[in-house]
Design a protein that fits this description.
Distance between the termini of chain B: 59 Å
Number of strands of chain B: 0
Shape of chain A: globular
Oligomer: heterodimer
Largest interface: A-B, 65 and 49 residues
Largest sheet of chain A: 5 strands, mixed
Order of helices and strands of chain A: EEEEEEEHEHHEHEHEHEEHEEHHHHHH
Chain lengths: 499, 356
């Protein structure tokens, strides 16, 4: 059923940034060597079950641990295991399997027992397929199966949210993901998920501007009473679990814990498609569609690439190298910078954003009319001409100044806290329960306050500092959450997984 | 541009060589940043908003441009001299403190230095302007720790200091404006019939003579240099609200209260306040409501706090105008509410974050 439009207070709509990815898919070549981290997406690190020198085929399980909360990991090419070593990967030591390709065929051996007529399969078989394909490790808390792929069990799930809001400055294209037959596959994927999580209500959340997709989905789902469709404004950070749950379910979110703790599973479109591919077609999760965004890319397209291909192979030739650039993973507001191009891509990647590293000083910068400058305030001409593509670069556009309490950060904060007030407390080192009382632990670290500040104060950094100092003093976020929520799966919870 | 860069670089060389001069690095830095922007890059988030404090402050200045041009038209080029004096001496205090504190120079005084002459009588002697701005910036802002920490609006502090110390200059010298033709654009100062016209508010209060709304709106009446051209003030205020530089709550609450409160009070308590619409157009209310009460540093930062401050401002203004010996109530009420803002904020925060 189509639900009326709804939204949340605060947040910011990033409109029309230069370098949006076009709805065109290019298949990347099979790399000559892949590096596969044995910790991908949701789940703990697992032990390899292959040795150095083993021959593996594409889709063969090379790591699996049924005891810990995890999902299997596969080789993504046909080849020989060259080495298994521990490497530095996003500030952690992670075991990596290095596999040299021997056969560059694109063929992927299918999983056993899959069936295009999936409704004839038993629930056990479907769960097993989802688990074995590795799909169950996608997104913030994974897809619950009986194999401990998430912190809760499938029957505990009361709501399943599948979203394609696209609230980031750069998003993977919905038109591409749900093109033609894929829309039907996606819908089948939702049906499969409903089958393994029988007690849940399904909420499909789609960018309100994609009218055509919503129309088609409404037509498809007209007879299903367990499914609702919500058109939502693509306002950052609507795509966060923390914002989806309150907007859609009108339910409070246990900030700092995951949605799974209150029995909600949040998945995105690509994960749902992967569910369909795993169950109906038996394809293990060894390929990922990645959007190449940003003005520093030669072409803004989508790339279908094997997990474990190095960034160097994939995108080095696709970046404009004449100006210095910065490569960012997934989100321009919270994503990590990818400095080391030898790192591999993995399951959790969906956008790679390259933007110029702008250290140039600009003459009378603050007096420019600003046809291509995005701002929350309406002080640039760009607000009058929304059709013009906005420039993105990494310049700070101004010097740091003292806070003038303009309240922009308060207005834009999606969780209704007052960043400038908290940052003043932290700066003065006044760390006590007042901070907690002012809901500092509600911060979801979306980065909007730092984005918006006209005084260029690193508010997000100071808030994180405040968190750490408070925890050192014995104030914990559990004190704000646990007494008010009945959380599930708390034993298995290890903190929010954010890359 | 090349020339500027070279000059600045030469100065940097000079400062780096000479130890005594190196204290003045903040001045040079300010100039450098003003013309050439920044080369710093972001960490996280990777992109930031294009607005900075320079643009923020310069938009207030832009919104005041019609008022400044009108002031020159009505009062002659002498007003420009007042602006220059105000900027020079205000800037000097700012620089002195930046040098002493070894901190950068902040852009806040761009606004203070322009608003200050606008709230003075157009005949104020230049030395009085200088004293007023020095006192205002020094005791209104710098002693509290500079921009962002001041409790009072520096321009108001300066103005009130002058009102109290030089009552004769500040309250008696009202000048009739130049009207017709090119007006004050051809004159330096109106010397012919100075010290004649009483302000509309004084006329209303003492002799019960009302000035017509057209005269009030277009500025054909006496008053402070910047308060008479009310069409320009309204346009500037709306411009600031539309560009989100100031919050709409304070002006709306302030003007709304001034409009409604006299009516209610006259009905309920049998007072004899002048009617609301007239009060809104008399005196410096529009200038105060749009440009001074909205100063983000000195007004409450919480939204309910802004409503409360606005209503309080309105009530105080009407009360001071109607019941006290002073003709003008806007600046006193703004000063009073300025010192109440921290309290209002604390109360709002207490109510909002009650201990769970």
């Amino acid at each position: 059923m189509l639900k009326p439009f709804r939204t949340f207070k605060g947040g910011y709509r990033f409109k029309n940034y230069a370098g949006q990815p076009a709805a065109r898919l290019v298949e990347a070549d099979i790399p000559s060597k892949v590096i596969i981290p044995l910790m991908q997406g949701f789940g703990t690190e697992i032990n390899p079950c292959v040795k150095k020198g083993d021959t593996v085929f594409a889709g063969q399980t090379i790591g699996r641990d049924d005891e810990a909360i995890s999902s299997p990991i596969h080789s993504s090419v046909n080849g020989v295991v060259e080495d298994i070593k521990r490497m530095n990967y996003f500030k952690r030591e992670v075991t990596m399997a290095v596999i040299r390709t021997t056969n560059t065929s694109r063929e992927i051996p299918r999983l056993e027992g899959h069936s295009p007529e999936w409704w004839k399969l038993s629930n056990e078989k479907i769960e097993e397929l989802i688990y074995l394909s590795g799909v169950s490790s996608l997104d913030r808390e994974g897809i619950p199966t009986r194999f401990k792929s998430s912190i809760i069990m499938p029957q505990d799930v009361s709501h399943l949210i599948v979203h394609g809001v696209g609230s980031e400055p750069y998003n993977i294209s919905l038109d591409l993901l749900l093109d033609g037959k894929n829309l039907l596959h996606f819908f089948e994927g939702v049906n499969i998920l409903k089958r393994i999580m029988p007690n849940c209500r399904v909420h499909l959340v789609i960018n309100a501007h994609k009218k055509k997709i919503i129309e088609q989905l409404v037509k498809l789902s007209s007879e299903l009473e367990w499914l609702d469709i919500y058109p939502l404004e693509p306002k950052y950070p609507q795509g966060y679990d923390e914002m989806l749950v309150p907007t859609i379910l009108k339910q409070k979110f246990p900030y700092g814990y995951s949605a799974a703790n209150i029995g909600v599973v949040v998945l995105n479109i690509q994960a749902t498609l992967a569910v369909y591919h795993a169950v109906a077609e038996g394809i293990p999760l060894i390929e990922r569609i990645i959007a190449l965004c940003g003005p520093s890319m030669k072409e803004n397209i989508h790339l279908k690439a094997r997990v474990g291909s190095s960034l160097e192979d994939l995108i080095k030739s696709r970046i404009k190298e004449n100006v210095p650039y910065r490569l960012v993973l997934n989100s321009l507001l919270t994503g990590v910078t990818l400095n080391d191009l030898s790192l591999p891509i993995e399951r959790s990647y969906s956008q790679l954003i390259a933007l110029p590293e702008n250290k140039e000083r600009e003459f009378l910068s603050f007096m420019r009319p600003g046809l291509r400058r995005d701002s929350y305030s309406r002080t640039f001409l760009a607000k009058l001409f929304p059709g013009i593509r906005k420039r993105t670069d990494t310049n700070q556009h101004g010097e740091e100044r003292p806070c003038i309490s303009c309240s922009f950060c308060e207005e834009i904060c999606p969780v209704r806290i007052i960043p400038h007030l908290l940052s003043k407390y932290v700066k003065k080192d006044l760390i006590d329960e007042t901070l907690m009382n002012y809901d500092i632990f509600n911060c979801i670290e979306c980065g909007l306050c730092s984005f918006i500040c006209p005084s260029k104060i690193p508010l997000l950094k100071q808030m994180k500092e405040g968190h750490e100092k408070l925890i050192m003093q014995g104030c914990d976020r559990s004190q704000c959450i646990l007494p008010y929520f009945n959380l599930k799966g708390i034993e298995g919870y290890r903190g929010v997984t954010k890359l | 541009m090349q020339f500027l860069r070279k000059t600045l670089d030469n100065f940097y060389d000079l400062i780096n060589k000479n130890k005594r001069l190196s204290k003045f690095k903040p001045v040079l830095d300010a100039g450098d940043e003003f013309f050439f922007g920044t080369s710093k890059v972001t960490t996280l988030p990777h992109i930031v908003d294009y607005i900075d404090i320079k643009r923020f402050m310069s938009f207030v200045v832009i919104a005041l441009i019609p008022t400044v041009i009108a002031a020159i038209y009505f009062w002659g080029w002498y007003f420009l001299a007042m602006v220059i004096v105000s900027y020079t001496f205000g800037g000097l205090v700012e620089v002195a403190f930046a040098v002493a504190r070894k901190k950068e120079i902040h852009e806040g005084f761009l606004v203070t230095g322009l608003i200050f002459p606008l709230i003075l009588a157009p005949t104020t002697p230049l030395w009085v302007v200088a004293i007023g701005i020095i006192f205002g910036v020094l005791f209104g802002k710098e002693v509290f720790g500079g921009t962002g920490r001041n409790i009072f609006n520096p321009a108001i502090v300066g103005r009130i200091f002058l009102t109290i110390t030089f009552p004769k200059i500040m309250t008696l010298n009202w000048q009739a404006p130049f009207t017709g033709g090119l007006g004050g654009f051809l004159h330096y100062q109106n010397t012919l019939d100075a010290v004649t016209a009483a302000t509309p508010l004084a006329l209303l209060k003492s002799q019960n003579i009302a000035t017509s709304y057209t005269d009030l709106l277009f500025g054909f009446c006496s008053g402070s240099a910047g308060e008479t051209f009310r069409i320009g003030l309204i346009a500037g205020g709306i411009f600031l609200i539309l560009t989100k530089i100031v919050d709409w709550r304070i002006p709306l609450a302030y003007l709304g209260t001034v409009f409604v409160f006299p009516f209610l009070s006259n009905r309920l308590f049998h007072t004899t306040f002048s009617p609301g619409l007239a009060q809104m157009l008399y005196g410096g209310l529009l200038l105060g409501a749009f440009f001074m009460a909205t100063d983000p540093v000195t007004s409450p930062f919480t939204k309910p706090g802004r409503w409360i401050a606005g209503i309080l401002l309105g009530v105080l203004t009407v009360l001071i105008r109607g019941l006290s010996g002073y003709v003008e109530g806007v600046m006193f009420s703004i000063l009073l509410v300025n010192c109440l803002s921290p309290l209002i904020d604390t109360m709002v925060l207490k109510a909002r974050y009650r201990k769970k």
